[in-house]
Amino acid sequence: MRHFALTIWVTVALTGCASTVYFVLNPQNEKEATIYIIRKYAEPLLWNLHVYIDGQEAASLSNNSFVAFSIPSGVHTITLNWPDLSFMGLKLEKKIYFEGNSSRYFVIGGESRLYPGYMYSTGRSSLNLAEVSGDHGKRLIREVKKD
């Protein structure tokens, strides 16, 4: 039992590590858009959230962090997905058009609630992605950098 608890603790500790970006951030140009994804506070807090662009992993976001990367102009599918070990089972997909030489700011939100019962537990979870103005996005990024 002790070994099992240690294994779970190590898994959780390593999963909630710093954010990672797999896509490149190029200087702004007419063929690409710059996308900022901000996770100020989204439950569950211990797990990194995986971000995919057109099925390819673009980033992994820890809580209270952000990532920035470039994507070609055009329509792209953004997918948000929690790791399997989080037991969230939530997945969000949005198709969004991106124009070259532009910057777009998105904020991730969500919550997770577990209601233990006598025979079984029930829960409620949400996950969302909202676009915000450039000024608001820059302010959130400054707040995240302070923390």
Model description:
The chain is an alpha+beta fold. The chain has one domain (2-146). It is 18% helix and 49% strand. It has two helices and nine strands. It has helices spanning 2-15, 134-146; strands at residues 20-21, 32-42, 49-53, 56-61, 65-72, 74-81, 91-98, 103-115, 122-132. The chain has a five-stranded antiparallel β-sheet with strand order 1-4-3-6-7, with no helix packed on it. Strand 3 (49-53) and strand 4 (56-61) form a beta hairpin. It is globular. The protein starts with a helix and ends with a helix. Mean pLDDT is 80; it is low at 1-16.
List the helices and strands and how they pair.
Layout: H1 2-15, E1 20-21, E2 32-42, E3 49-53, E4 56-61, E5 65-72, E6 74-81, E7 91-98, E8 103-115, E9 122-132, H2 134-146
Parallel strand pairs: 2-8
Antiparallel strand pairs: 1-4, 2-5, 3-4, 3-6, 6-7, 8-9
